[in-house]
Amino acid sequence: MFLSAHYAGEDIVLKLQPNEPWKKVLGPTFVYLNTLLDGNEDPLELWEDAKYQMNKEVQSWPYDFPASDDFQNSNQRGSVCGTLLVLDRCVSDECIIAQGAYIGLAPPGDVGSWQRECKGYQFWTKANEEGFFSINNIRSGDYNLYAWVPGFIGEYWNNGVLKITPGCEINVGGIIYEPPRDGPTLWEIGIPDRSAAEFYVPDPNPKFINKLFIDHPDKFRQYGLWERYAELYPNEDLIYTVGISDYTKDWFYAQVTRKKNDGTYQGTTWQIKFNLDDVEPNGIYKLRLALACANVSELQ
Fold this sequence. Notes:
300 residues; Immunoglobulin-like; 3 helices; 9% helix; four-stranded mixed β-sheet; Polysacch_Lyase_4; four-stranded antiparallel β-sheet; 3 domains; RG-lyase_II
């Protein structure tokens, strides 16, 4: 399945206007069939061998054997490098190294447009411990630079068009992301990193246990976890008290409906309780939310 709205929704459904020309190279695809050597009965050897082969294929990309003119080989592509820093004056007067940041090139758009883009090509990487990033083997074309940094809300977008030509090596130097900020943070629940993994993830129903994810850090991948909310909160909804509650134990990983005994579903309302010692009567206080994802829902 090369184009799909699965796990994403209507926003990335491919939409073409009447008579709009479009084509996109997908592939080549690779199927690797391996086998255990005589006398070896450990199935994990197959897994390790497959990972080894995958790394070899990654190093070989882009392949030089496709004959299609639409598949660009390595000398028809370019590269972009640079360093990403974060400037958040409520955290530090100095720029912060954006270690582990995700940096990508996608068709020109606006903030966050890469998430809804499916017609063109995107190329992504992660910044190293110094905030340095390098994106290689980029198809020729026009791109914007996008980025987001785990631990900082919002995302970076540079509206300058990067024109990739065969063999080009573009160094954008140091770029600085300034997260949206109106004042110091009074309280925070969780980590803005496009994931809900840090919140409370219940144990799965024994009937639905996936053995691949037993004692695995991605516990949230177990099936049917959302239904556990009704068991944990059968009558009243979640109440979180800032300074007392622990989001790893007291904040359910997903806000879901409550399944009732008659098979219907009831909307849920969570509460956050907090105290402010000093309140500015005419001050403006902002609540910022970072959503990992949403499905058939709206924020009210």
